[in-house]
């Protein structure tokens, strides 16, 4: 006797292991895409893949999450990656943008998912072009996102969207249920802790929810207080992303950790035309976390961490200013392993140092 469709779907969601094994063999790990379908196709072409995800050297793809939001065509990005995953040509993990949609949260840059237009450019009321989802598309996207793990781990490489902290990964690995259920379980525990300890400071409460919930740590990283408020994600904030990699001196220095999330601009590409519009420079969202590193540097004291988010997710700002792609230092990039080469959508390639 067949199970009811809804029961079967629930069972399938609950059967997904939230930490899975990374592909063995040669791989290309692609950074945050953020709906930039054209850039993704260009990068795949540079990497040598065909439209079915095949590679002449039998390489396979890994996506670090944040497939969606801000860019013009998140729907086509998800459909392509989903197809590659179904053919075992790719793996993909959850980023914070996918997780926001699983939780039904409306955020800056994701109104397309709810079938709504949106103005997302800093300092502009102009509507940004984004392909809009309908009911059937929303269901297909959410069903796919529920199949995605939070992290991937191999013999000497591991992949997570924002931060790999062993104690948090262990909590994720040991959980049986969906990623939303895991998040909500720890949210309740932290609410109880805050009430029990009579914590009333809003910033401290925000930091507890961010830094002690394993799903939040893995998908959106660690945060800290800042002295001055700043603009990011469409609003002003008083807590900021924390450069956790600069404190990593663990025994896992022989293991390469690959992350996305923290956009790193290639400042050598910034166009003089930007300064004609913004003479004092332009910070699209938040602070530059990589001022001490060049665009191809491994991170941390042990040089054991690599961020592959090359800021494609802020290309909407370039379009909003009428500037060519890359004018504010954006790219889409892939880390080629085991070679440890970075390849960008504009054809630039460089050895990780």
Structural key phrases:
13 strands, five-stranded mixed β-sheet, six-stranded mixed β-sheet, 11 helices, single chain, 353 residues, alpha/beta
Protein described:
- This protein is α/β, with parallel strands linked by helices and 353 residues long.
- It contains 11 helices and 13 strands.
- It has helices at 5-14, 37-47, 74-86, 96-102, 135-145, 166-173, 179-196, 202-211, 214-220, 272-277, 315-320; strands spanning 19-21, 27-30, 60-63, 90-92, 151-153, 157-160, 223-232, 235-241, 256-259, 305-307, 333-337, 341-344, 349-351.
- A 6-stranded mixed sheet has the order 4-3-2-11-12-13.
- α6 packs across α9 (214-220).
- The chain starts with a helix and ends with a strand.
